[in-house]
Write a structure and sequence with these properties.
two-stranded antiparallel sheet, alpha+beta, 5 helices, globular, about 15% strand, about 140 residues, four-stranded antiparallel sheet
C-alpha cells in the first residue's frame, strides 16, 4: 500500500511517477506468491477484453488479457502484466472492486496450485470409479451368501 501512495503523490507527470516508482521499487522486496499473471474471478458473464483492458490497464502495461468463454470458465479472466510491480499494484487495488455490479476477486495465478487441483480432481474421479466398481461386487457377494 505504501508503494501506491508514494507513486501517485509525485504529481510530476508520467516521467516523475516512473522515476519515483523505480526508486521505491528498488527498495521493496516482494512476497514469493506475487506473480505477473493475475487470475480474476466473479466477473460478469458479458464482460469483454476491452472492458478489462480499460480497468486493469490503469495500473500498468498489459501484455495479455484472456477471458473465459467456455461454460465452466465464464466469469473468469487471466491478466498478464509486463511488470510484476504493476501486477501487485492492480491486485492490491482491484481485489473487492465493484465492476459492472459485481465485486472482483483478484488473485495471483499459481501454475503449481492449478495443476495440483487438476491432479486431485483426477484422483477423486478414480477413487469414485473404484468405489462404484467394488461396492457392486461386495453387494453381489453379500447377496450370494
Amino acid at each position: 500500500a505504501t508503494v501506491s501512495v508514494l507513486y501517485w503523490r509525485t504529481g510530476e507527470g508520467a516521467g516523475g511517477r516512473r522515476k519515483m516508482s523505480a526508486i521505491i521499487r528498488a527498495n521493496i522486496r516482494l512476497k514469493p506468491e506475487v506473480r505477473r499473471i493475475l487470475y480474476v474471478r466473479n466477473l460478469p458473464f458479458k464482460v469483454n477484453q476491452e472492458d478489462l483492458f480499460e480497468v486493469f490497464g490503469k495500473f500498468g502495461t498489459l501484455r495479455q488479457v484472456r477471458v473465459g468463454n467456455k461454460p465452466e470458465t465464464k466469469g473468469t479472466a487471466f491478466i498478464v502484466y509486463e511488470d510484476i510491480y504493476d501486477a501487485k499494484n492492480a491486485c492490491d487495488h482491484l481485489s473487492g472492486f465493484s465492476f459492472m455490479g459485481r465485486y472482483l476477486i483478484v488473485l495471483y495465478y499459481d501454475k503449481e496450485r492449478s495443476t495440483k487441483r487438476k491432479e486431485n480432481l483426477k484422483k477423486q474421479e478414480d477413487i469414485e470409479k473404484l468405489r462404484m466398481k467394488y461396492s457392486t461386487t461386495r453387494n453381489e457377494g453379500a447377496e450370494a451368501k
